[in-house]
């Protein structure tokens, strides 16, 4: 799914939010704490697209995501009186760590509200950066409300995750860094949650058009189950939508930021959405081909490119926005990605309840060069005859064609394999 492409703004001066000078200044400030992350050329993705593709590895940034850029720029511009009052933020992960580290580097007390049940690595990292962490609420909306009430009660400065000019300017510095590394970039593919990251990048590139003498196309990507931008762009204003669970939870935001939306509407070329299975496959590709650990939210741009949702000409940069993924979640996502790419096949097969049947099934699978990794056996499956059993076999295959070969061999031998998701 994609939004309607934008019409070019008549003048860059019409863009709301930070100016190019403010974005450049924000980049200089962020350089005090943020690393210049690697730009990796991807031969595999270049072959898929038919033109050069580079990966901007913000998953290797300090705190594991780009969020430190905007957080540090915002905090560094607080007055002495505001710094004395301290800061507060609410987040389930990346924003929490960005604010916590920025506050520590600037000597500001930070209180971070996180939802109950937040992933332990994210909780521990936020505490390790020196923040006082308060666990509150079971969904992020409850956590955000608690942080706002804390700010009102104590006077602490609330640091928003995306909807603020200083945050947008801080993230916009990435556009300048991308140009330093890929001077002839033609397309930049960016994950979207609330929109702070893409708003900063798109604003910078739009304002750089006269200087560059060309336009850099900026494309946004959202998770299909939490995609507020396409309906908002269609309606012409930010719209709240109900979100469904998604593995890309880092960008599961139900309503665009007001400032972010205003910039995206003018400066972003198109927004597409990707389903979770495509995201899981992209994460596996990044692990195998690029040797990069990327969280699902950071892999949505790669998913959009791999799935063919984007028509790209000229050098492309895909932004890998973060790498903060719980190892337990990674295990599940990798399994889903392998299944979605037909490299992990689960079949249920009803069999006559007599000796030798399992051995025959194993022999057929071996002859097809697939590898069995798990076998379950039951006499109590729904629809089984009294004289039948059912086995569930998990096996590794080499892709869709190989999986179909295995199934064909089983059917030719008289068995009735049923493929389950």
Decide which structural class fits the backbone: alpha/beta
Poorly predicted ranges (pLDDT <50, ≥5 residues)?
none
**Structure annotation, total helices:** 16
> Termini, distance in Å?
23 Å
Share in β-strands: 15-25%
Shape estimate: globular
Q: Tell how many strands the DSSP assignment holds.
A: 14
Radius of gyration: 24 Å
Order of helices and strands: HEHEHHEHEHEHEHEHEHHEHHEHEHEEHE
Walk across the major sheet and give the strand order.
1-2-10-7-8-9
Largest sheet: 6 strands, mixed
Descriptive keywords:
421 residues; six-stranded mixed beta sheet; alpha/beta; 17% strand; globular
What does this structure look like?
The protein has 16 helices and 14 strands. It is α/β, with parallel strands linked by helices. Strands 1-2-10-7-8-9 form a 6-stranded mixed β-sheet, sandwiched between helices. The protein is globular. It starts with 19 loop residues before the first helix and ends with a strand. The mean pLDDT is 92.
What's a quick, concise take on this entry?
This protein has helices at 20-30, 43-49, 67-76, 80-85, 94-106, 120-128, 140-154, 165-181, 196-212, 229-235, 258-267, 276-290, 300-306, 327-340, 357-367, 400-412; strands at 39-41, 53-57, 87-90, 110-114, 132-135, 157-158, 187-191, 217-223, 270-274, 316-320, 344-352, 371-378, 388-396, 418-419.
